[in-house]
Amino acid sequence: MLGAGYAGLTCFLELQDRLPQGHQLVLVSRDRFHWFTTELHTYAAGHEADAVRIPLKRLVAPPGRLIIDHVSGLHPAQRQVELKLSGSLEYDLLVFALGSEPEYFGLPGIPEHALTIGSPHAAREVRERVLALTDRDNYTGHVLIVGGGLTGVELAAELADEYPRKLRVTLLEAAPEIMGGFHPDLVKVARQILERKGIRIITGSPIVTADQYQVALKDGGEIAYDLLVWAGGVRGHSLLAEAGLELGGRGRARVDEFLRSVSDDRIYVIGDSASFINAASGREIPPTGQAAVQMGRAAADNILRRLTGRPERPFVFRMRGQFASLGPHEGVGMLGQEGLVGLPAMTIKHFIEGLHAWEVGGGVMPLVRKLLAAPVNYLRGRRLRARRRPYRELREPSP
Ligand SMILES: Cc1cc2nc3c(=O)[nH]c(=O)nc-3n(C[C@H](O)[C@H](O)[C@H](O)COP(=O)(O)OP(=O)(O)OC[C@H]3O[C@@H](n4cnc5c(N)ncnc54)[C@H](O)[C@@H]3O)c2cc1C
To answer: 47: alpha, beta or left, given left = phi > 0 and alpha = psi -120 to 50?
Structure first.
């Protein structure tokens, strides 16, 4: 098992519990922790690391075995993976769950000058830059976040709430609107909340290049920044292409209905690195935490079936909902067709996050803490808003 994120750890834990005797199970992770990637924006904004990670040592037990190392190569023909420190490792079946890398769309200057928050290491860099920027006396730093999807929106809101007097935040989106995939009424509410936090939102403005001080826009405009964060998209892990596996959209490995690489049925690819076509829509399912967890469970089930001589089952993705936190005190979301704002949205988002921590073995306390945090944060937010500015028009939107 390569990778201990949402997809890899879910798959590993299912196998660890149910693996028939006589098989070995190895988890390779470059990090000693399972990080809740969907909450990395809070860490980037200065919150405690331990609120968004669990030590893997606590979760791994025989027959499972943990190797902390960096995967540096994959050789399907030899059924081997290369590890930076421990040499090579052979496998009979492999699960590739190394997540994603930033997709820069070939835009010059962005990889050199922008930071990202897709991994703990990247989020730590943003965190350090933010702390340095907000430490300066009589200076308001300007953070420019490129990409108005979930990642960009959640980071913008968190930074604006955490450093209201120390940072100016701009959210730049190439598409005509932020939060693609959300119901337009919810986007409208989210926009109002973000703008009330002082976030400047610019849409329909693709970036063409960046240098050390500013980005240039397609319409000829320029925006200067102190810190540039790229949240404009992700692609499959580069090791997939290097290994020669057939790729689908954005460098993700094309997988069959059982989540196996179409180039090699001994390699299951799950999570952000998989290009899985949803039979219902005929389109690739977008990379999300919920897809990663569902794929992790399905791949484990198929591996167990395969090891015990039973037919594998096709993976079916079920979209359960979509939630976005807008700082610690606000949120919006969709549960099925139902649009939710404020406390209900925050409660469900917190519940999903806490449930994941509980399910992977982090104990019941993170779930309890999360559920208690939702009303406390919501009420704190209401008090803050009442003190700062009137906010009545946003309280009871009906998406
Ligand atoms: C700030 C932010 C907010 C988000 N919010 C949401 C949300 O609200 N809802 C939602 O559904 N999705 C959200 N997402 C997307 C979601 O986090 C991803 O889709 C999900 O994490 C993908 O899971 P994964 O297991 O494929 O990858 P990851 O969770 O990224 O795990 C990959 C693992 O592989 C390890 N790894 C990578 N390379 C190597 C290597 N070479 N050697 C060893 N180990 C390696 C990594 O350390 C990591 O542990 C958000 C993402 C971000 C960044």
So the answer is: beta
